[in-house]
Prior knowledge:
The chain contains 17 helices and 24 strands. By secondary structure, the chain is an alpha+beta fold.
Amino acid sequence: MHAIYSYQLTTHQSINSSRKMCGIIGIKGQCVAKEIFVGLLALQHRGQNSAGISTYDGERFYTKKGNGLVSQVLSENSLPRLKGGEGIGHVRYPTIGSGDEEDAQPFLTNSPFGIVMAHNGNVVNYFDLRHSLGEKRHLNSFSDVEVLLNIFADNLKRDPFEAAGAIMEMTNGAYSVVSIIAGLGLFAFRDPQAIRPFIFGRRGENYIFASESVVLQILGYDIIKDLAPGEGILVDEKCKVTQKMIKVGTPRHCIFEYIYIARPDSVLDNISVYKARLSLGRELAKGIKRKGIKPDVVVPIPDTSRPTAIALAEEIGVPYREGLIKNRYILRTFIMTTDAERIRYIKYKLNPLIDELKGKKVLLVDDSIVRGTTSRQIVQVVKNAGPKEIYFAISAPPIRNPCYYGIDMQTRGELIAREKSEDEIRDVLKVDCLIYQTINGLKRAIGKDAFCMACFDGDYPTRIKGKEMLEIEEKRKKVTRKKTAEAALFDV
Ligand code: SF4
């Protein structure tokens, strides 16, 4: 392992985000920066708060990261400076930590070896781990990957699998991790419940790790496999691949990836996201039939719910129509403190096709309701187009519990379905009928055994102490406050 030097550039553009996760990539090949850049563009939906790439050329690391979209932080001009045949990249949505530029990934340490690391997920016992590092390691941020990196570095003698094993013994939470260890190679591992997605692929002598299979498809890599729960994979300097089960666990993949987070053209843990969303539509149709609703038209709230709305419309024999057109170029550059301002923002973002809505019984289809604020505003936009009645169908069951594994589900007090019945939510949204997916429908659509559904049923895949819940929620509130009133608009 080599001593290393680091070279870092930062960017100072900040924009707000509409998605709720992170995405990671690691590539071992030749001059990898451009491929990672293209891959990060394909993962942009997973995080729009910050982006970064670190590469290694056998002598030193090169890093460029900052707050903003991939195309704002990384430009054609900056890529040639990111030299080397090994690299990792990251896009971030802050669910915890400050969301400041200091929290942008990847993170670097020089001691005892040069290591850069990025991750997707959330460490539940972050504060205990941070405390346990004490004076041994200096931390410079509130990002949980910095804690993972320092535990890893602290336990790295020669064998990265052992160091990852130390993390798995100590860490409670979700973490798909990719790293470069100077002189050793590209090393990746996935937590023992495999909560967050993580896939491994190959193109000739080049290897790739990524959060979603769409990255492999776009870059022309073949899928080798999804990393198994608790598995680590090392691609060394000579491209020799070593795979080990570090800590065997039972899979509890995040089911919300299929409902909302992942791209429809991805396949996660051998399940097509697009097909899962079609199945959700067929299951949702059963609820529509049970309630005896007869809409004139089925309209998706773009973009995630489109396949669900298509399948639902087919199933109930009603025309599918685009009734809301989304302007994807409106960025969150406004601070919105009043309802009137938020509704105006939604009107800029979603424009109704009046002819498709006026005088009709409209069945709107959305992926989920978190606080209800955005849904209420979208309903208002549709109402202004003069429909006869509005029904609201949701791909997901009621969200009653926060997520502690890296999805921004707010805090318990902010989840509308935690305190209110479905009838009360219907009244808040001011719709004529509200139809949620059932938990059984969700299980039939996607699967029942290998999934975390804790935000719906409260059955968390890892044991979480009350203290840890409060700590995470407190940190999250700070992030939310920082994002001011725009936090209410994350669902659009
Ligand atoms: Fe996914 Fe919900 Fe589990 Fe979080 S709690 S990992 S969002 S299924």
